[in-house]
Amino acid sequence: ALFCCVLCCALFCCVLLRVVACWGCTPVTCVCVCFFFEDTNSQCEARSTIASIKQDQTDQKGAFDELNKCLELANRSSNKPAKLKACWALGDYEMKAGRYAEAVDYLQGAFDIARELNDRSAVDKIRIILGKAKGQMRLSGYMGICQEDSLDKVLAWKSLRDEFAPPQPSQP
Fold this sequence. Notes:
Bac_ResReg_Asp_Phosphatase; TPR-like_helical_dom_sf; mainly alpha; signal; disordered N terminus; 2 domains; single chain; Tetratricopeptide repeat protein 29; elongated; TPR repeat
């Protein structure tokens, strides 16, 4: 899918060597060529490659934008493997950023697609990451409660507590 032209051969080289330019080609050039040929699969691959390069260059915002574009392309073309890859990468990105609710949304989508595709390896890997994201999401709320001064809450609860059973009459 990457070899739609000579420039995409250079993109493949860029992916392997993790460099921005190779033989005068950039991944952006390959995206333009893929748009020209209306090859959505190659566009998705090129956008994913651009995202990984930007992530290597610590441009997290740019990587996130490219992954979102890849997800949009995958949704338009009904390319489930590309959508799986984009959702998974976006979920990882959101996990690293500490936005666990968004990570759960993306990872749940990736998990559902992996189950549709019957990709056992991806299902198992995403299940673990999804569990970590859900755990972190719940843990952050719990830690907020634990870090507050909760003595007042405990005392208020104890003072309002009802008896579970009325006292038993004593027998003579």
